[in-house]
Every structure is written in C-alpha cells, then in structure tokens.
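Quick illustration for those who missed Monday's session on complexes.
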Amino acid sequence: MTPDAAPHPATDKRFLRALGGEAVWPPPVWLMRQAGRYLPEYRETRARAGDFLELCLTPELAVEVTLQPIRRYGFDAAILFSDILVVPYGLGQKTWFEEGIGPRLEPLGSPSAVARLEPAALRERLAPVFETVRRLRRELPAETALIGFAGAPWTVASYMIEGGSSRDFQEGRRWAYGDPEGFQRLIDCLVEATADYLLAQAEAGAEALQIFDSWAGIWPDDAFRRWCLEPAARIVSRIKAVHPELPVILFPRGAGPLYREVAERSGADALSLDTTVPLDWARAELQSRLCVQGNLDPVALIVGGEALDRQARRILEAFKGGPFVFNLGHGIDKTTPPAHVERLMTLLREA
Ligand code: 1CP
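Prediction with coproporphyrinogen I bound:
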C-alpha cells in the first residue's frame, strides 16, 4: 500500500488511485445506479427515449444520462449508462423492458438453447455501447474516471433462464443441480461473452471495470465457488492478460464470509461490499488485501437526516487509513430524494 502522497502517482484521478491501493482522503465516491429514476432530468430523457433498451443503445442519450449525476454531484467516477441485460440481447436472446415490471427475456427453455446463442455477433450488436464510452471519455471532466461494467455470468444467466426477475431463482438452481454440464455450458458462454464485452469497453476508453454479481448470495459454498467465484476469476484473468493495469471491481452481493475467498482468489483489485458485510471484519480481512468499496444502506439514503449521517460516519471511520471508495451497498432506490445525496456529498467532503 502506498501512502496518499506518493511522489509520482500513475494517475491523478482520485478514484483510480484508491483502486490502485492508496488511502485517498476524503474518499472518492460514486453511487451504484447513480443515473436513474430518482433524478427528474433522467425521467425527462427516459421519456424522450421511449424504450429503455433504446436509451441504452443511443449514444447521444446514454452519454446525457451518464453525465447527469456528475453535473449535479461531482462524483469521482461516472458509470457508463447501460444495463447488464444488453449481453443476452447482444447474444441474440429476445430482451425487452416493460414499464412497471422490469426486464423481460424469452426464457432459454433448455440447455440446448445455449448452442443457438451468437457470441460472434455481440460486438457488432453492442457497438453503440462502445461509442457511448468513447464519447464519454471526451466529455467527462478531467478528474472524473469512467467505469465500464457487465453482469457476472450467474446473475445474467438467472434472467436468461427465468425470463426476467425472480424471487427465489428456482429455475436456475434446478438447472444447476439437475444438469450441471448443461448449466456449465451456459456459464462458459457467458464468461467468454462478458470478457469480450468488457475488453471492448476497455478498448473504447473505460478506465475501470465493475462486474455485478447481484444474486451471488443464494448459493451453498461449493456452488458459489463454481458458479460465481470461478467464472469471475476467469473473466478477470482474461482482462488482465490484455490490460494488466486496468482495475477490476467485483460485487459478489450476499457472499458473506466467502468475500474473503473472493479477495484472495478472484484477481480483482477491489471488492464492492453489500450492506450486510460487518465493517470491522471487512477492514481486517478484506481491506488488508485490496481496496474496498461500499457499503451504505440505500434505505438510509432514502431516510436521510441524522440516520444517514450516522451510517455514513460509521463507514468512514471503519475504512479510513486504507484503500477505500465510498458507495452504497446496493443500487440507489428510485424514491431517494436528490437532496439527501447532496447532504451525503457535503458530509463526505468534510470527512
Ligand atoms: O428507467 C427505467 O425504468 C429502467 C430502470 C433501469 C436503470 C436505470 C434498469 C432496468 N437498468 C438501469 C441502468 C443500470 N442497471 C445501470 C447503469 C446506471 C447507473 O449505475 O448509473 C447499471 C450499472 C445497472 C445494473 C443492473 N441491472 C444490475 C446490477 C446492479 C444491481 O442493482 O443489482 C441488475 C440486477 C440489473 C437488471 C435490471 N435492469 C433494470 C432493472 C429494474 C433491473 C433489476 C431487476 C431486478 O431487480 O431483478
């Protein structure tokens, strides 16, 4: 770990310095899902786009909504505006977003459907995303880093199998236990497609990459290793083979004590911590090995006031002195008052 005042930092972007292992203070900050429905200007652009996938795949509009939270709050990092489900779309699976329901996909049906996916077409189908990344690098303020992202294989597979959101992921779990070889073929396909997709974002100018495994927390430990940790490690290794210096953040949400194995074995530069990870444990077991990011409860941000201040201060106190990026433990809720984000930013700047 290098001290804050390293003589020749490779970058002066605060966010990238923290990912590189520096204790930057006050900590760099961004918020998962920082562009979205809680912002009136997003709702306005969203209405103009009509369709959500159209918004993701129209560079002019995707750039605009990426920049909106940066203009308002001056976060240290912008995250490309897109969605994890553009990958199934890029693979040729029918994917759409229904107002008031969320993502919908034509379910894969059976493992044999994996053979019909079209990994060779992904780069071309998702070309607008890479154009968005290129434009963002030109338009972002000099001090703001650009994060590219993708869903992790299991989390994306869960939507591909269930045909949308799920309460208990029964279909995916049945598939994994009942036909592990068939399920492995889907995961392998997603490992390759996701690595290709992230590498293309890196070539277009993404300066850090985050892999969202939002539903990693449902598995027994052996299944977690096989379906979450191993695929993530393979993606990281493919990225590092081409771009050894490009920082990768993993978000194995709900991994509990397995977060430590992810820190040791995934090859990631940083871990994004969900709200339930105990702070003292994370400081001792995780932050001693790599940069941690997180883990404010999004509901504390909805409530605001003293409750928000108290939760934010606890996190600051726990992670001060080591590599740390302030963030939420999960995506910002659409009912969050924008003024509460402003209050949080004031508190962080005074830390
Ligand atoms: O305008 C709308 O109604 C669409 C809402 C929305 C938005 C704003 C969706 C549909 N996706 C997004 C953008 C998005 N999604 C971003 C970029 C914006 C930013 O961060 O500023 C990112 C990083 C995501 C990632 C994402 N999509 C995840 C992983 C993170 C997480 O929150 O766990 C997941 C699981 C999705 C799937 C998805 N897409 C959209 C919704 C509503 C959902 C969740 C559905 C569910 O809960 O199962």
